[in-house]
Amino acid sequence: METSVHRGGIVFQHYCAQCHGVKGDGKGRMARLYDPRPANLMESDKNDDYKQLIIRLGGKAIGRSEFMPPWGAELTDEQTADVVAYLRSIHVDAHSAQ
Length: 98
Ligand code: HEC
Description:
By secondary structure, this protein is an all-alpha fold. The chain has one domain: Cytochrome Bc1 Complex, Chain D, domain 2 (Orthogonal Bundle), CATH 1.10.760.10. It contains 4 helices and no strands. The longest helix has 14 residues. The structure holds heme C (HEC). Keywords: Heme, Iron, Metal-binding. Pfam families: Cytochrom_C (PF00034). This is Cytochrome c.
């Protein structure tokens, strides 16, 4: 489990951080180029299944922005599961954070 989070973090920094930010807060260095902005993944209200889906298929295929690219051809199933585990580890509950 922890290994999965660790591996997922490496995948995230490599493929996702430029848009979603090194912390996953949606403030990546390329974020301002996109409208809608890349999601703040620390405060996402989506479940793991949904995240898995949008990561594999990309935003456009599920009615979201095409600026969220599809990663199905890039990442193995294991890497996708790892990155979802990583996202779970950085997630802060917006309600309990107050
Ligand atoms: C080119 C910029 C870009 C890259 C790179 C990118 N994303 Fe995204 N992502 C977006 C944008 C823009 C959205 C918001 C789409 C919308 O609001 O319709 C998004 C949305 C998402 C969401 C939905 C979150 C929510 O709460 O609805 C997830 C999960 C996600 N991205 C994960 C990832 C992961 C994991 C990676 C790396 C494998 C990644 N993204 C790489 C731009 C990007």
